[in-house]
Write a structure and sequence with these properties.
Length: 89
Amino acid sequence: MSFCLDTYLQQSDNYEILASQAGFKDCARLIRFKAPGSRVIGITPIPIGVDSKKGTVLIPYTKPCYGTAVVELPVDMAEIEKIRTLNIK
């Protein structure tokens, strides 16, 4: 998935905000709760939740002065499989 999230959120109605104006740790807990088996990627751990039934991913999105939000975005099943096959240590 390679696109500008800020532009996508401005131009599309095809997403859901599950939490807003929260701390990053609270958003990470929500992602782990809503999507059991979520993945953690990056050197600074970032949780990525996957909902295969709905075909969506849950990601934290931090915007300065607004805090962190959990955004649920629709993605192709191929992208979900890429997330699942990441070699995470």
